[in-house]
Amino acid sequence: MSGIFPGNSSLIQQLDKQVLMVLRDGRHLVGYLRSFDQYSNIILEDTFERHVAGGLFCDIELGLNIIRGDNIVLLGELVRMLVNLSNWWLCCLIAEEMNYYLHLYLQDSDKERDQPHMKRVELEEVLEAEERLNEEGNTSVRQQWDFEQQH
């Protein structure tokens, strides 16, 4: 159990890494965790809010944010797998030896590649898609994660 800290001390492992945060009102924020305090209040840098509706998404830049700890529902590190020729052979050997199928996703900094099953669009299109979902009786991702409106 080395490397596991009680309470908010485990946030030390996420410092200076890109994290996804879900808030009580259902908003999804992505940014770099720069600091936190004993109450789990968090400072995120280069933050954007991700809106998702069906297979569409858009990002709204927010910049630097301070998030109160009691508003956080979920926080996790975003991990990107980068493959280059130096570790390609190692990946092949490990996969072959363990008889697993190897699925490699070559990614770069382009956010569309981070979401291969989704399409980046303008905010207006996402809002229209959310309205269509509501009219059909379905809920959007934000509504599904909205703990303040849940009964």
UniProtKB/TrEMBL annotation:
SUPFAM superfamilies referenced in this protein's UniProt entry, alphabetically: Sm-like ribonucleoproteins
UniProt xrefs under InterPro entries: Lsm1, LSM_dom_sf, PTHR15588, Sm, Sm_dom_euk/arc
CDD domains, per the entry: LSm1
UniProt keyword Ribonucleoprotein present: yes
Example GO molecular function: mRNA binding
Location (main, coarse): cytoplasm
Assembly: LSm subunits form a heteromer with a donut shape.
Positions of region (Disordered): 131-151
Entry's family note: Belongs to the snRNP Sm proteins family.
Pfam families with a match to the protein in the record: LSM
GO CC terms, sorted: Lsm1-7-Pat1 complex; P-body; ribonucleoprotein complex
Keyword Ribonucleoprotein recorded: yes
Locations listed in the record: Cytoplasm; Cytoplasm, P-body
GO biological processes: deadenylation-dependent decapping of nuclear-transcribed mRNA; mRNA processing
Matching Gene3D superfamilies: 2.30.30.100
Bias kind Polar residues: ranges: 137-151
Alphabetized UniProt keyword annotations: Cytoplasm, mRNA processing, Ribonucleoprotein, RNA-binding
Domain Sm: 6-81
Function according to Swiss-Prot or TrEMBL: Probably involved with other LSm subunits in the general process of degradation of mRNAs.
Annotated protein name in UniProt: U6 snRNA-associated Sm-like protein LSm1
Species this protein is from: Phytophthora nicotianae P1976
